Amino acid sequence: MAPLAHQLIGDTLDSRHIKEWLRDYQRVRAATERLCAPLHREDYMVQSMVDVSPPKWHIAHVSWFFEAFLLTPFLEAYRPLDPAYDFLFNSYYETHGTPFPRPDRGMISRPTVDEVYRYRSHVDEAMTRLLEAPPAEHVGEILRRVELGLHHEQQHQELLVMDIKHILAQNPLYPVYRDDLAVAPAAMPGEFAWLSHPAGVRRIGHEAGTGAFAYDNEMPRHRQFVEAFELADRPVTNGEYLAFMRDGGYRRPDHWLADGWQQVKEAGWTAPLYWVQRDEGWYHMTLGGLAPVDPDAPVCHVSFFEADAYARWAGARLPSEAEWEIAAEAVDGEGNFVESDRLQPVASTSHGRAPSQLFGDVWEWTGSAYRPYPGFQPLPGSLGEYNGKFMSGQMVLRGGCCATPRSHIRATYRNFFPPQARWAFSGVRLARDA
Which of 55, 184, 367, 400 has the highest count of CB atoms within 10 angstroms of its CB? Predict the structure, then answer.
């Protein structure tokens, strides 16, 4: 997917720019529906765990976002298709209204899938009218919210891929989401190398006022002293993680944080999520069905606890998010994203000269807790609930993954999940003190 249309600077834009935003709106919305196209009607309803939302709910919720934050306040005489949807498809915006309970999203059999798609069409038609003739006095705020809404939908596109995979993985028949995914190029990463970074005061975070999009949690840009460190040139591979497993990694408490070891015992973890051991070796569930684990591809679907335990076993640690961002600033940002159409991490072609796969393939756990930057200010109103209210009990991941849209990611992007989460496309990159 190409980058979104243009930078937003100021409150006045000509009609050509507004039409570009309408094209972007249509392009992002169409991408969501393409991700859902391989699903059967029965797939749309499943909620395989509390953290997973049924695909039907995702495609309704992203429409609700545009309705709640753009159409209702800015489109004169807008009428909702069904006022009840404002309750059913509100995710967590308590200042907007009372959200429907997240664990019960799989219980919403009505509206039907067809009715949800009619809802999307209703919202799309109204958004087209709004973007073709936005009220002049609100055009700047409208386009800022459109931009946020498009990035919000791209987040849900990645969540859709994650959730569809988790849903299908519960089926012992290992059903195939798509049998025409792109084949990964042949590659053998070889031994990883350590790339050195000197100590110094660095500037971290997004620079406000540039016109480039960023979430509020990426700001403000601020100074931070970072000690000299070394970062591995590529992520940890499945083969390297298998060595940890064979050395008793899931049986020895000495490598684990206390909460992590408790999680291992309670959940019975013995391997990354979706791995299945058979006589001939390890397999894992992919969106193309059950497949042998590629020893050269980055290990994926591991929690922060597993990433941290592996790093300790390897005599290293996880990078801080500041260290990761410093390394990523000099990288072009290309990688294996959703546009590659593999929906699976692939082996690195790195030879130690520069960091490889910092972007795409797998989200990389950092050792940093998800907390506000100095001077952080959430967005005003209900949109301020987007990021800031989750700054407790979460760890930061960086770089995007094979299910992330390319135009959605940047070096300052801060993703976050609880430390026990494994259904994201999350992996490991090692760091160590210089």
Answer: 400
